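Protocol step 6 of 9: fold each sequence in the batch and record its structure tokens directly after the sequence line. For illustration, a two-sequence batch is reproduced in full.

Sequence one:
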Amino acid sequence: MTSPQPSGGSPRITSHRDLIVWQKSMQLAAAAYQLARRLPPDERFGLRVQMQRAAVSVVANIAEGHGRLGKGDYVRGLSIARGSLMELECLMELGATVGYFDLDAVHPALATADEIGRMLWVLIRKLGARGILPRTSL
């Protein structure tokens, strides 16, 4: 997928598919869909669809942001992806809290989500976004 830079340095990013954060987000989306399938039928239009939409939003906004021409648009896409990631984490935790999921089944997805969140934060900062504070302390 990636090709080495002429200088022999880090692999060159030629597509959103080359981004490790996008690859991990695809894995998380697949895990979220698997969890959503476990929900009872009465959650078909509730928690299930919300989990699926949030999971799709994470991966799609990383791709869309990467495809935009401006750095600000890229950061905006990553920021939206990060917000959707927090939503997905909340929904998975809610599913476990109300007894739809065993916590052991949700834990790997939450760990992956945490890793993706850190990766998005670093990428946003490296792109030069200023004045953005992590909201974990609020």
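Sequence two, same batch, same settings:
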Amino acid sequence: MMGRLLEEISWEGGRVKQYRKGGQGMENVLSAQVLQALDHLPRDRFLGAVLRDAHGATSARMRVAEEAEVLELTFLPDEVLLTCHDAKVQPDATLTGPSSYCLVEAKGPGRSRFNTLQLSREYLALLEQAGERTPLMLLVLGAPPPVRLAGGGVHNPVDVIARELGQLAPVVLDARNEAALVARVPEVLAWTTWREIADVVMRQVKSIDTSDRSVASAIGRVASSLVRAVDWHSSARP
């Protein structure tokens, strides 16, 4: 995971200076720290709990959570070519299970914005990649919705995807497909926040019941590293 982060940073060009002082406030650094911790902690007790405590798309979230122990977590996966729109998308992470597929899009704790058509393109890419598996699009945000858009204003992410699908329809969708895709958004789109993830993790640590002090200490250290990362990045100046 750290290797993928370093590879991503190497393409930043002049922006690489923003990673000085540990990359505080940089969403891909925070994402790497949090996802690595969730990958190492007991999956069902922690990653599964994060998914179960998120918001929206309940059925899809529960399906992904059920497969927490066997999910393949990929941080900064290769770009996906959206075949119906000749565009590429790169989510922050994917969680791949036997019968589920989750695309994770994370935004930093500051005033991060979604680019134009970003959410709708990722939604379409998710459905393509999921195939017959249950799709879930999980937004990890600095604060609960509404979300900020690059074009200005704050909006409900479900409404954003619906509106952007309307913009894409003349190019890649017919009216029937557009209506079906718009209707499906609430079944697929979920969200949580960095703070909620940290709170769930600390709650789960307190519920761990093991007689092996070394195991308990190891779990506590990894969980604490996640909480410290959220606290540290959240304290960055916008």
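Proceed to step 7 once all outputs are recorded. Observation for sequence two: The CA atoms of residues 44 and 68 lie 5 Å apart.
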